[in-house]
Structure formats: C-alpha cells, structure tokens
C-alpha cells in the first residue's frame, strides 16, 4: 500500500473556529453603501433581512469566530470532509504532479453550501425567525438551506432561476424532500418578478432576479428573514472550515500545495478553501499560488469592471464594490448554474485587487471534457461548477508532464454532479453550445452601472 | 461533544479478505442444476460466461478469500465506508434505541454495487476478456459495472429494465459518463428480447428478461463475458467487506447490534452486511437478530415458494433452488427497481431455510414516508431500496420508545437516492400507487416452475 487515497480527519479534529481573512489584509475593502443615500451602511440597515449575529459576523475584524456547538453537531453529519489524493487521475494523465482534491460532495446537499446554510439557519432560529427566503441557481444553495431549516425547525421558501428549474427538476424534488417550497424565478409572486415577466414572459431568470424576489418577500414579512448563499463576508467566513480542514490534512502527509485552484461564481467555495492558505501566505509561512476559474459566459473577474453595483437586478440591495458585469446582465443558461452571477464577492474582489490570486475563464466544453476524464479515473462525477477548476488542474498537470515538475496541486471539488447528469448527457451527445462573452457585450452590460459620488 | 456521529476506519484497516459463510453453515445449499440435464453443474458449464477465478469463488468452501491488491486500490476510492450513529433520527423519534447505519452511498455508483463490480471487472481483465455485458434494474448495478470496467480498460454493455430506463434517464447518463453503453430491455438486439416484445411491445421489462439478453450476447461472443450484480455466491462473498468493516467499527465503540435490518432484492446488500455477523452468531460469540425487508409487490421470501427455478425469464441459466415467484413473474414497476427480482439468492434462501434470519414485506408508501423522515433528520436522501429497511427500523425504534428498551439497531443504508428523486416527488405529490401481491397472483406465478426429478 502506497500513500493514502483519502486523508481523513477525526470528528474531534473538526475546526472549532471560522477564519476571517479581513483581519490579515493590508487594507480593508471599500465600504458597502446604502442604495438610497449612497453612504456606508450600518448594522441597522441590514436588520430587516439578517439576525444580529450574522450582521456582526459581516462586519467583524476579529481573526477567528467560534463555531457554535449546535452548528458543529450538524457539521458532524458529513464533516470533516475528505481530502483525496488523485492517484488514479495522475496515473491516467501520466503526470509527476501530485493532485489533491478537497471533496465537499459528501454533504447533505452534495456541495459546500451547507457549511453556511447550517449556521445561517441556526442564528436565525436563535433570533426567533420562523421562515427564511432565498434564491438558488443550480439548486445547490436552495437544497442546502432547506436541509438546514429542517434541522432548526424553520420554514424555507426558495426562488430558483428558471433556467435551472427547468433543466434540473430533481433539485426541486430534493428541496421538497427536505421540507422546502420552490418557486421558479421570475415568478408572479413578487413585484420584482412581475416586472421582469412583463418585459419578457420567457425570461430564463438570473440569480440577480431571484435575489430581488426573495429579498422583497423577506423585507415585507416580520417573521421572515433572507439568506444568501455566497458573496457576503459572513458566508465566506463560514466556508473557511474547508480550508482549515485542508491545512490540517496536508499537515498529516507532510506536504503543502504549490497551487490551489477553485471555481468562482459568487466566490464562497473558492474563498472557503483559499482564505486559510492565504493567511499562511500573507504571514510568510507558505508559498502558494492561488487561481480562480470562472465560466467564459459569465467572466466577472477576467472581463468585468471593478465598480460599485447592486447585488440584485431590481437594485434593492446595498451597493457593493466588486468585479461585475452589471446587475442587468443575464448570462446564457449554461449548466454550471452556480456560476451564473453577474458580480463577484466584494471581499474576494478586493483580495483580487490586492494581487493575492490570479483568474482565468473557461468554456463549458473543455470543462465537461475534464469532468468526464476525472469521473472515469476517480469514480466521482463532479458538478459542472468544479469542472472549471478541474480543467485548469488537468492542463497544469499535463504541463508538469512536459517539465517533469512534481507540483502539488490542490483543487476544490465543491460538489457532485448527480443532479447534473442531463448536462453530461448533452456533452456526451455533442449538444453543448458554448457562449463566450465578447468585449462589446461586456461594455453594454456595464454601461448602466450606478454612479457613486466621490 | 458526545458519542461520534461517524465511526470511521483508516484505509489501513480495510479488510484484506472476503468472508465465505458457506464454510460455517451446518449444511450446504442444494446443488445448482444444469437446465438441460438437470444434473449438478460443474465449473466447465460456467466457463462460457465467467472467468476461472470467479467460478472458483462461486464454489469454494474456504472460509476466507484474499482481496487482490489491485481491487483494494480501487476500493480505497471510497472504502472503508462510514458507520453512522443516527443521533438526530433517534432524537426526532424520541427513542431510547441506538440506531446505526452503514452507508454505502459514498461509492462511485452511490450504492454497494461497486464492491463486487470492481473484483468482477478485475478478474475478467486478468483472464483477457475485452467486454462485459450485464442487466440492471434501477441502474445502480449498471453504473457500478461501467465504473469498474473504466478502471480496468474493459468495454461495458448494459441492458436496463425498461421501467427503470424510462423512470431514471440520469442513470443512463451516468453509465455513459463512465464509458458504458446502455440498451433498454426488452430490446430487439437479442432473441430473448425480441420474443418478449413479440408478445408485448409495451413490456416494462424485468431483471429476468434483461439477464436473458445480457447472457445471450455474452454466450455468443468469444471475447465477452457476463457479470451479475447479485444472487450468486461470489457476489455475496465480495459484499461481505461491508459486514467485516461494520464489525470493526462496532468494536471501536464497544457495542454490538441486537438487530440487523436490510432490504432484499437479489440479496447481496443484505448478505454483505449480515454474513460476517451471522458468523459471530453461529460461533456463539454474538447474539443478534437479523431481518430482511422486501417489497410487498415482489415478496419472494415471504410469499414465494422454495423450489428450483431459472434465474432469468427465458430459462437460459442453471436451475437454482431458491425462494421464487416464478421466472415468468413480472413485478409491478415500483420505484425500488433494485428489488424487482423474481427470486432470492440461493445461498440466502438456504440460510433463510436454516432459520438464521426473519423476513417481512412492506409497501412503497410506508417506505418513502420513512425515507423522508430519515432525510430530514440525517441529511441523506436514501435510495428507495433501503427505505424498506428504514421503515422497519423506525417501527422498531418506536416500539423501543414504548418499552424503554435501548436496543442497538444496525441498518444497511445501501445507497443514496439522488437519481431517484422523481420517486420522492411522486410520493410527496401523493401520486404513488401501491401494489400488494395477492395469494392467487402468487399461485399463478409459481404454477409454471420447472419439474425436477427426484
């Protein structure tokens, strides 16, 4: 028996704290602005949507935040998640590179999303909230929140982007199995949804529109809060449990990664794995390159602008400085629904501006090719989202084959593709259409950004 | 932190041998007979379909069989599988019972099936075979074999029962992602399939028909063998890795189960968990009750007869003494496709006749009710097959609530239901139809059993 295939941690080794990268950055990110006054928002502005504990986590500059015991108890259903050494993929590629993947598909929703859904449901239940509303793209987040709500006795109502709702009926069934309720978005249940439908009754929807709908319902009901599955600081904070575990797992085999690769939509999976490693890098304890991979059809980091924009389509959210394609941008309905978001997390955008990681964009076809290659070697069918990172990893590993470099590569395998098999069928039947965004599309998309004084 | 949620084994603790219950039974099972001569079959009779190593395992009376290193290397992609303590389900039920589940859904196919698919592909590749054919019901076995073939460079061709092929299109996509080819059964590619279609062009198919098709193709091509996902001795042997791990995991927490509950179709998942525990029971080292749960629509153990019958519909296989509903029996197209088989494993049938376990039958609706209850508490959506065992477990745990008994219950959670969510949707929308088999249906089904002299 050679090196282990799975590097496991015991439940007693589950991290007890989330890590807050804000504490270690050389400068803070630009403030979040009120959409009306365009002044920095305070905790009170967020109170109609979020409980006080999450608002506190959104703005804290403490380096570590304790994970409540009630959250740890639910985490233990699947955490610590395994770190895999991809022995069989390396062999199939004939590469001297050592490829590792941190696998979040073992969670109830099959992705990294429950890492934040569980604490969000917990803090809301603690605050006496009865119902959470949210949006979902591919459906991973909606599933995660429905599961989390079932654990803490909350109702859960989900607006799912219609493109995904139609492509992935199993996601609705899974959300309902966990006790949640699902609406396709745009829906006629909200002002925001009706406005979109009035312009285009066949709208495929977008995360931005679905957010508007969920926020509108939460803002209008006293016992109801809103939950977001990515983008915000507290979401990224909760996801750092991934990277903390990975650090402990690498320590067990006496290695450190030379390169970390993750896919980015809103940025939470990527940040969750990368931030604890960036702490090590910033402190000089570790020399590691970090790479974000986004879809060519929705390339906020590589083709968007860094500017203040709304998080949603209707302009109801605070203004955040981020890499954005414009809040009106509706990306083509690609299969990686979790990456179809017009903006990038403001914190991650700031970290990108600080030069702490690189970014690249890839087309669907090369991503699914990597996904199939990975599945046949490793036995896990990846979700379409992490195939973006896998495509980059495989290219890097083949580069190492040329140079003979034994690079240690770590990738975030943030979910399985069991509910995305229709996409694999489309790829295998050569029916995938690729949508690469042209420069003029981007220019058009960002033309309507809100103007910020000063 | 209380008792652990997951009891894990290290890869170094992966069992190195499969266990053969035949070595410890007070009497051997009745011989398998040649369909023509009705004399006991010898190894040569099986050679057109199976490689010599598997034939040897089919008839061996050795207590332990070494697991080849090449098989262990693939097993390590997901094994040892976790043993879970269902803390949250216990709490939801308010029971003093301690419920454990051995979870096989972490495998590449999402079920226990790769435990035997991998060694079967390995031994066939070792023997120079180029292609394997097989049948599949729910699709779990076809997926497992396609994955296993991808690991050893074999082609894989799968006949899938049409009822499941139509209900579960994602399974086809998953088999194809692993590189396999899928045909709905009955198909017009074989004599056996054409004969069924001639009688009923809308036939929903059955495992018996699909076996006939796959066997026919394998028997007619020199470089092609056939692989079976349940029923046979060597399949049950390979699955004992489940029970051996569970024994080691219980030893870690200093407990032994009072009751083991598993679902039965062909019997391999149930036998895989139960046989190592039956060894302990037969030796007097452990006192444990064992219970098989089958679907009310296909109740071979509880309503079938114990008689010689064919394993397939066309009557091409050897005759095996087993609990059977008759090889012509086509069960209603329930969602637990993996349990839709007319017969029970001959070895397991013999063990049942020896009084070593009990059996009961349950309807779909109560099984899905248990599945949803389990999912909301534990976060795992179970495949429809193991919900049969869960329904029995939950009933038992509620009985313990009445009596105050702290019974230790172990159930085989043999797979996840990610590709069965249409069935959950049907249950949640109250669209499930239950099919309980009447006595006269059974009498009719077994009327045409072959006559055996003596």
Automatic annotation (TrEMBL), chains A, B:
A GO molecular function held by the record: pyridoxal phosphate binding
Pathway: Amino-acid biosynthesis; L-tryptophan biosynthesis; L-tryptophan from chorismate: step 5/5
Pfam families for the chain: PALP
Function: The beta subunit is responsible for the synthesis of L-tryptophan from indole and L-serine.
Modified residues (N6-(pyridoxal phosphate)lysine): 113
InterPro entries hit by this protein: Trp_synth_b-like, Trp_synth_b_CS, Trp_synth_beta/beta-like, TrpB-like_PALP, TrpB-like_PALP_sf
Family: Belongs to the TrpB family.
Quaternary structure and interacting proteins, as annotated: Tetramer of two alpha and two beta chains.
UniProt keyword annotations, A-Z: Amino-acid biosynthesis, Aromatic amino acid biosynthesis, Lyase, Pyridoxal phosphate, Tryptophan biosynthesis
Protein name: Tryptophan synthase beta chain
E.C. number(s) listed in UniProt: 4.2.1.20
Gene: trpB
Catalysed reactions listed for this entry: (1S,2R)-1-C-(indol-3-yl)glycerol 3-phosphate + L-serine = D-glyceraldehyde 3-phosphate + L-tryptophan + H2O
Domain Tryptophan synthase beta chain-like PALP: 77-415
One GO CC annotation: cytoplasm
Needed co-factor(s): pyridoxal 5'-phosphate
């Amino acid at each position: 028996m050679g090196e282990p295939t799975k590097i496991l941690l015991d439940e007693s080794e589950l991290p007890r704290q989330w890590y807050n990268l804000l504490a270690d950055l050389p400068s803070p990110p630009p403030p979040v602005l009120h959409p009306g006054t365009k002044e920095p928002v305070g905790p009170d502005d967020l109170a109609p949507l979020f409980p006080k504990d999450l608002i506190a986590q959104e703005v804290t500059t403490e380096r570590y935040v304790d994970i409540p015991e009630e959250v740890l108890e639910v985490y233990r259903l699947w955490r610590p998640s395994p770190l895999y050494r991809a022995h069989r993929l390396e062999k199939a590629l004939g590469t001297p590179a050592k490829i590792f993947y941190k696998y979040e598909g073992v969670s109830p929703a099959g992705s990294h999303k429950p890492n934040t859904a569980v604490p969000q449901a917990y803090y809301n239940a603690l605050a006496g909230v009865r119902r959470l509303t949210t949006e979902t793209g591919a459906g991973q987040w909606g599933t995660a929140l429905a599961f989390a709500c079932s654990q803490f006795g909350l109702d859960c109502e989900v607006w799912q982007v219609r493109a995904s709702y139609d492509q992935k009926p199993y996601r609705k069934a899974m959300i309902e199995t966990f006790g949640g309720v699902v609406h396709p978005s745009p829906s006629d249940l909200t002002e925001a949804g009706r406005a979109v439908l009035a312009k285009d009754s066949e709208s495929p929807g977008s995360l931005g529109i679905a957010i508007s709908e969920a926020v509108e319902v939460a803002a209008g009901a006293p016992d109801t809060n809103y939950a977001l599955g990515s983008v915000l600081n507290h979401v990224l904070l909760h996801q750092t449990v991934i990277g903390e575990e990975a650090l402990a797992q690498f320590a067990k085999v006496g290695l450190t990664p030379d390169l970390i690769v993750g896919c980015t939509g809103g940025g939470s999976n990527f940040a969750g794995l990368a931030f604890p490693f960036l702490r090590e890098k910033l402190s000089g304890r570790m020399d590691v390159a970090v790479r974000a991979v986004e879809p060519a059809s929705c390339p906020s980091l590589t083709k968007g602008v860094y500017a203040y924009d709304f998080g949603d389509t209707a302009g109801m959210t605070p203004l955040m400085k981020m890499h954005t394609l414009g809040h009106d941008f509706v990306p083509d309905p690609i299969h990686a629904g979790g990456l179809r978001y017009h903006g990038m997390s403001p914190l991650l955008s700031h970290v990108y501006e600080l030069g702490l990681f690189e970014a690249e964009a890839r087309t669907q076809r090369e991503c699914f090719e990597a996904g199939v290659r990975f599945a046949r070697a490793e036995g896990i069918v990846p979700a379409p989202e992490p195939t973006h990172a896998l495509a980059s990893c495989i290219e890097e590993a083949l580069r190492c084959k040329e140079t003979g470099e034994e690079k240690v590569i770590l990738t975030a395998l943030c979910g399985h593709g069991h509910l995305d098999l229709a996409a694999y069928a489309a790829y295998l039947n050569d029916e995938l259409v690729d949508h690469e965004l042209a420069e003029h599309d981007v220019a058009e998309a960002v033309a309507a950004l809100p103007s910020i004084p000063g």
